[in-house]
Amino acid sequence: MLSAAILAGGLARRFGGCDKGALRVGGRSIRARQLAELATLTRDILIVGGADGAEDETPSEGAPASRRVADRVRGMGPLGGLHTALLEATGDLTIVIACDMPYVSAPLLGHLATLARDADAIVPYTDRGYHPLCAVYARACLEPIARRLAAGRLKMTGLFDDVRVRVVAVEELRAFGDVDRLLANVNSPADHEDLVAQHGPQGPQGHQR
Question: What global pTM score does this model have?
């Protein structure tokens, strides 16, 4: 069983507190793009952050079904969001992505999930370091995460000291397209403008294999 979670928590101070998933790239919101990709991999899609049961995406976007859940423990950052995702997911494996990644693709995420046989966390690694918010986590990560939350050790990559990690290097990631594009995220308004300028107003045309 495979689940997926979009971590939508965070204050987005650089965007005036707005929902980064609602930002539009190529005529569609980032979240609509993500939901469309994830829906080809699983029916169990969570949006972690905000109020329980809140509706997501407008009908006009044709968004696949998803359910929003509130963080079980608030104020714990992405590690707390991951903890909630694994508690709420129905699958033994959960794809986890940040809410501000417009070009993440189903082929890449599906490939990461296939690598979980002997690992608890499957994580891309590039010259920018680990990408823990475009990764796959097994339910076995729950206990190590809970210990870290209780101790106030919230660094995402610190978790990798406590679980079996499968690192996915750039050479392997390139099979699924432009790595910088696939793993691009929107940390600031300038990032949003740059993504649209660099990658075109319509975004990628189909999947690159």
Answer: 0.85
